[in-house]
Amino acid sequence: MRDSIENISQLQKKLNDLQLENQILKNILDKAGLSYHKELSIFRQSDSKEDYDQNRAKESFIRMQ
Fold first, then answer.
1. pTM of the model
2. Residues 19 and 49: beta-carbon distance below 8 Å
3. Which residue would you say has higher pLDDT here, 41 or 51?
4. Residue spans of alpha helices (H) in 1-65
5. What are the pLDDT digits (tens) for 19-41?
6. How far apart (Å, rounded) are the C-alpha atoms in residues 25 and 60?
7. Which helix (H) or strand (E) holds 50?
8. Secondary structure class of 6 (helix, strand, coil)
């Protein structure tokens, strides 16, 4: 039982860390003038992940630097 509780605690900590990292990355995109939600929407509208315009992703990355 103790192992299960420790595992749950570890998973919760990892989840919290990932949520914080995700928010930080969204803030970085926002400061670079990129809309996370817009980019995500475009990505989801494509038929597959491979259809995502790599040039668009590259341009977004360049703007962030």
1. 0.57
2. no
3. 41
4. 2-31, 36-45, 54-64
5. 999 999 999 988 988 888 888 88
6. 13
7. none
8. helix
CA distance 35 to 23: 13
User: Does pLDDT of 18 surpass 80?
Assistant: yes
Per-residue tokens: 17: 């860390």
- Can you read off the two tokens belonging to residue 61? 């990355």
Specify whether the CB–CB gap between 52 and 43 falls below 8 A.
yes
* Crossing angle of helices 36-45 and 2-31, rounded to 10°: 100
What is the residue whose two structure tokens read 């990129």?
A: 34
Confidence of residue 56 (pLDDT cuts 50, 70, 90): low
